[in-house]
């Protein structure tokens, strides 16, 4: 047979897929986990936080294994323990939705009109509305722990709010960004190893901003399905959809819990069967700094807006998780840049926004000086 790095949907094999999806998680292989439910590896947020001080890399290795070669799904109970903060965010979400409804830009491209409330780029919109809430939310050390497990020290956060109202319908099973958003014929043009590799550049997550009992339709997930190499070509096929519909599981979540899964996992939102109950999630998509995220985030706008609050908190010793919030809010990578105008500062890499924020805070720059310098480094990066 001639060797080929390419494949097509016709090559997908449901029996290989079933064999992968019939695996089971052995709890003993996940010593930091609190429980295993339906092959989902469940962590206790407080316990994880305590343990991470001493065993950070061991935990990160365990999380990586769970997502890559385990079932592909983890949940962290009580990841955001400050419910007041979540309530504040929910109020901001409502304000944004109202404003977007009035201005006519509110639209969900992935659901029937009216069934869903969707806020694209909630990450930037919240940062511009309420700097303190944004800082408190995205400095969560457990978020950083999980993101770093998959993507290393620096990463790019994007977020979208999804509010599923009563009667909201289930989504078809699918895979996510990158290749989950491409047409099947286009996917087939990418070498198979590259298709497989893309899943390691993004981490998919959801923060429960309301309780999510099973009746409210939390995400349907098919454990181990991320391991199927031809999955980006196969998820539209009838026999794969049928298998998903028979075997997908759901994890009930409580407000403040976090759910993370490989973007290659077959999944889809469930039906909301409850009356008078909105299921609210802040969906997180966290990307490697080596790739293009799905949404444009204007880090300069975010940093300019939150800097005064950051400085105040820093000077009052209230910024316990400095590294975490800077990594979330700033562009932490030197490239792409213009090497004519933006030569390396330390080692071989030009200065990043991340380094600039840290310098500004430790040297106590005022907001005007910070913004001016930020604009300068942005300008130098333009070609
Ligand atoms: Fe999805």
Summarize the structure.
By secondary structure, the chain is of the alpha+beta class. It has 14 helices and ten strands. Bound molecules: fe (ii) ion.
What are the segments in which pLDDT stays under 50 over at least 5 consecutive residues?
Answer: none
**Rg, Å, rounded:** 21 Å
Q: What is bound: which ligands?
A: fe (ii) ion
- Write the CATH architecture name of the largest domain: Sandwich
Please provide a written account of the structure.
The chain has two domains: 9-288, q2cbj1_9rhob like domain (Jelly Rolls, Sandwich), CATH 2.60.120; 299-381, no CATH class. It has 14 helices and ten strands. It has helices spanning 14-21, 45-68, 83-103, 122-129, 131-138, 141-151, 184-187, 192-198, 231-234, 238-247, 299-315, 322-329, 353-362, 367-381, and strands at residues 35-37, 40-44, 73-77, 116-119, 155-164, 202-208, 220-221, 258-261, 267-268, 279-288. A hairpin with a 2-residue loop joins strand 1 and strand 2. It is globular and about 60 Å long. Fe (ii) ion (FE2) binds at residues 174, 176, 267. InterPro entries: PhyH, Phytyl_CoA_dOase-like.
Give a topology summary:
Layout: H1 14-21, E1 35-37, E2 40-44, H2 45-68, E3 73-77, H3 83-103, E4 116-119, H4 122-129, H5 131-138, H6 141-151, E5 155-164, H7 184-187, H8 192-198, E6 202-208, E7 220-221, H9 231-234, H10 238-247, E8 258-261, E9 267-268, E10 279-288, H11 299-315, H12 322-329, H13 353-362, H14 367-381
Parallel strand pairs: 2-3
Antiparallel strand pairs: 1-2, 3-8, 4-5, 5-10, 6-8, 6-10, 7-9
Helix pairs in contact: 2-6, 3-4, 3-5, 4-5, 5-11, 11-13, 11-14, 13-14
Bound molecules: fe (ii) ion (FE2).
Residues 174, 176, 267 line the site of fe (ii) ion.
Keywords: Dioxygenase, Oxidoreductase
Pfam family, one: PhyH
Organism: Commensalibacter communis
């Amino acid at each position: 047979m001639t060797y080929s790095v390419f494949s097509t949907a016709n090559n997908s094999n449901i029996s290989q897929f079933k064999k992968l999806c019939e695996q089971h998680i052995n709890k003993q292989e996940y010593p930091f986990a609190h429980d295993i439910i339906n092959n989902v590896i469940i962590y206790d947020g407080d316990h994880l936080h305590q343990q991470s001080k001493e065993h950070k890399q061991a935990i990160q290795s365990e999380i990586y294994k769970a997502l890559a070669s385990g079932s592909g799904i983890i949940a962290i109970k009580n990841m955001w323990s400050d419910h007041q903060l979540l309530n504040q965010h929910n109020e901001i979400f409502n304000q944004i939705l109202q404003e977007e409804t009035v201005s006519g830009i509110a639209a969900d491209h992935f659901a029937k009109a009216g069934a869903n409330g969707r806020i694209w780029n909630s990450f930037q919109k919240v940062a511009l509305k309420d700097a303190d809430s944004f800082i408190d939310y995205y400095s969560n050390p457990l978020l950083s722990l999980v993101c770093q497990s998959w993507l290393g020290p620096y990463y790019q956060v994007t977020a979208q709010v999804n509010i599923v109202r009563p009667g909201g319908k289930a989504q078809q099973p699918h895979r996510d960004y990158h290749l989950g958003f491409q047409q099947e014929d286009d996917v087939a043009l990418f070498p198979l190893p590259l298709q497989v590799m893309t899943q390691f550049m993004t981490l998919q997550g959801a923060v429960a901003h309301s309780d999510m009992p099973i009746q409210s339709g939390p995400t349907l997930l098919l454990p181990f399905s991320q391991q199927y190499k031809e999955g980006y070509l196969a998820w539209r096929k009838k026999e794969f959809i049928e298998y998903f519909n028979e075997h997908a599981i759901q994890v009930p979540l409580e407000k403040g819990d976090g759910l993370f899964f490989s973007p290659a996992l077959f999944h889809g939102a469930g039906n909301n069967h409850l009356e008078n109950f909105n299921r609210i999630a802040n969906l997180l998509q966290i990307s490697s700094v080596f790739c293009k995220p799905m949404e444009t985030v204007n880090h300069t706008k975010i940093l300019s807006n939150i800097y005064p609050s950051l400085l105040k908190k820093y000077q009052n010793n209230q910024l316990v998780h400095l590294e975490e919030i800077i990594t979330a809010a700033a562009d932490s990578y030197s490239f792409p840049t213009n090497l004519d105008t933006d030569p390396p500062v330390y080692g071989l890499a030009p200065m990043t926004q991340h380094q600039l924020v840290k310098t500004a805070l430790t040297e106590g720059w005022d907001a005007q000086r910070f913004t001016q310098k930020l604009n300068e480094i942005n300008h130098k990066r333009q070609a």
